[in-house]
């Protein structure tokens, strides 16, 4: 293939052509969590010269040592938390085993050789040049993590992928009276071994992390209290009265067909057009089973979810073992209320009740922000929602993509498919190439759907639509979305699993391995 043709395939029309220079295009990946390492692996397969930056010393993101709260556990059943090219036999694994799998993956596919551990990216700025933002590449500034006095190294890359994770920038409520409280206040990320021992612990939040931590406090602390504004639905490890693993229900095409119709008409199959009254009737049965299988049916009515399924499935996690039993036995005190203020003894609730505490943990989520990214790159709307086409690329910006911000339930497969989509986008090899205006219209339509079907998802969370999200990306790549040999397997067996999507790099044709570039270091 001629050099000009190769440039058009891999780099788009604006890749600089420098006579006499012929080398792989340079790509920077920010973050070495699951999204970062799988993106690096896929880009390497497509011929990119990849450099991966991560502030931790080991790969894994939140699974790396110090990446999240002590005791973080994986809520994935067998064969869910895995990439297509490396089977993972772990079942509801702990952080250590999960990190080991990610490190094995990064080592097997050459990503560790491209990693700069303990290195923090502090700036990503477009290189000045004609055309759209990023058309001439990106200047990336980095330094030793945690050392603000360290020398900043600036390098130029042709492409940048942001895979910095969605669980690193703590969101804490700004409550009055903080100076009154003399105890310890933490975000969930900051909990470490021994934090709870013998102390009165109050956990604020209603998600998976909050339930994890208060269950642990019930075992270790002098007292444990959870305060939540509303009770979220939680998915049991096993459904149908505890007989069948959740992936055999929630990770099938038939199971997803019971959800409200997906926003992209290209991904809607005949089975998705089941009558809404039939769907509502089936969801009532599923909701009853979930209450029984999680043990929530044995708690007082105010400690059960108030909203019908599937409306709030976007906020669901897998129910921690022992939580419902601990609440039922009084080991955990559960209160449904907003938090109003700190007091000298603990917290005052909107109900007027005061909850005493020595340690207050806010499991109140994270900001999906990118402090290193040039403000010229518009990623959020005024409401704070992430505005990315397909949850991957910002309209009006070239050679920049995001991986890990098209979140689906409990599944890293979505990150792997995103990486394949993005590699083809960088190579101008997608089946279709929407204009900037079409991208913006697509984002508007998808955000409107999310607000209706997945309220509070912030443009980031696609909830339990694992297979539909996969279908959408496969359709864009011109690859078949049907992944099983027969219809029964296609619709009734778990389909949102990575091993069904093996071999995608070769499926798009043999990637070119080099083109002209102007990357450099200063």
From TrEMBL:
Keyword hit for GTP-binding: no
Highest taxon of source: Bacteria
UniProt keyword annotations, A-Z: FAD, Flavoprotein, NADP, Oxidoreductase
Family matches, as InterPro entries: FAD/NAD-bd_sf, Flavin_mOase, Flavin_mOase-like, FMO-like
Gene3D superfamilies documented for this protein: FAD/NAD(P)-binding domain
Oxidoreductase among keywords: yes
GO molecular function, one term: NADP binding
Family of this protein: Belongs to the FAD-binding monooxygenase family.
Entry protein name: Predicted flavoprotein CzcO associated with the cation diffusion facilitator CzcD
Source organism of the structure: Amycolatopsis tolypomycina
């Amino acid at each position: 293939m001629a050099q000009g043709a190769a440039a058009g395939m891999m780099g788009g029309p604006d890749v600089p052509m420098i006579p006499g220079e012929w080398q792989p295009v340079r790509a920077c990946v920010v973050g070495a969590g699951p999204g970062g390492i799988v993106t690096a692996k896929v880009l390497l397969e497509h011929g990119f010269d990849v450099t991966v930056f991560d502030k931790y010393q080991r790969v894994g993101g939140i699974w790396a040592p110090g990446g999240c709260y002590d005791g973080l556990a994986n809520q994935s059943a067998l064969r869910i938390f895995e990439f297509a090219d490396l089977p993972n036999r772990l079942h509801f694994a702990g952080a250590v085993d999960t990190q080991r799998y990610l490190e094995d993956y990064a080592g097997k596919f050459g990503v560790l050789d491209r990693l700069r551990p303990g290195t923090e990216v502090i700036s990503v700025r477009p290189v000045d040049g004609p055309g759209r933002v990023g058309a001439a590449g990106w200047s990336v500034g980095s330094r030793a993590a945690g050392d603000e006095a360290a020398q900043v190294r600036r390098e130029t890359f042709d492409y940048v992928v942001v895979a910095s994770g969605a669980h690193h920038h703590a969101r804490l409520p700004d409550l009055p009276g903080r100076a009154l409280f003399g105890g310890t206040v933490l975000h969930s990320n900051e909990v470490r071994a021994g934090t709870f021992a013998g102390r009165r612990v109050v956990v604020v939040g209603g998600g998976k992390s909050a339930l994890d931590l208060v269950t642990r406090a019930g075992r270790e602390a002098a007292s444990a209290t959870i305060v939540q504004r509303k009770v979220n639905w939680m998915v049991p490890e096993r459904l149908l009265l505890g007989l069948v693993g959740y992936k055999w229900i929630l990770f099938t095409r038939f199971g997803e067909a019971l959800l409200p119709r997906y926003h992209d008409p290209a991904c809607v199959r005949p089975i998705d057009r089941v009558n809404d009254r039939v769907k509502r009737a089936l969801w009532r049965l599923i909701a009853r089973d979930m209450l029984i299988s999680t043990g929530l049916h044995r708690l007082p009515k105010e400690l059960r979810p108030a909203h019908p399924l599937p409306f709030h499935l976007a906020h669901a996690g897998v129910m921690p073992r022992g939580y419902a039993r601990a609440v039922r036995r009084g080991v955990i005190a559960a209160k449904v209320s907003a938090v109003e203020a700190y007091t000298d003894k603990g917290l005052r609730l909107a109900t007027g009740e005061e909850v005493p505490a020595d340690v207050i943990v806010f499991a109140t989520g994270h900001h999906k922000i990118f402090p290193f990214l040039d403000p010229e790159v518009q990623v959020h709307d005024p409401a704070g929602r992430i505005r990315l086409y397909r949850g991957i690329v910002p309209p009006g910006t070239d050679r920049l993509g995001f991986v890990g911000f098209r979140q689906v339930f409990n599944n890293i497969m979505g990150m792997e498919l995103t990486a394949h989509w993005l590699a083809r986008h960088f190579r101008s090899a997608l089946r279709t190439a929407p204009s900037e205006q079409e991208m913006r219209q697509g984002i508007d339509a998808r955000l409107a759907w999310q607000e209706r079907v997945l309220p509070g998802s912030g443009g980031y969370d696609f909830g339990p639509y694992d297979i539909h999200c996969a279908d959408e990306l496969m359709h864009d790549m011109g690859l078949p979305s049907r992944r099983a040999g027969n219809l029964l397997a296609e619709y009734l067996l778990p389909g949102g699993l990575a091993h069904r999507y093996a071999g995608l790099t070769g499926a798009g044709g043999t990637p070119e391995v080099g083109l002209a570039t102007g990357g450099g270091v200063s």
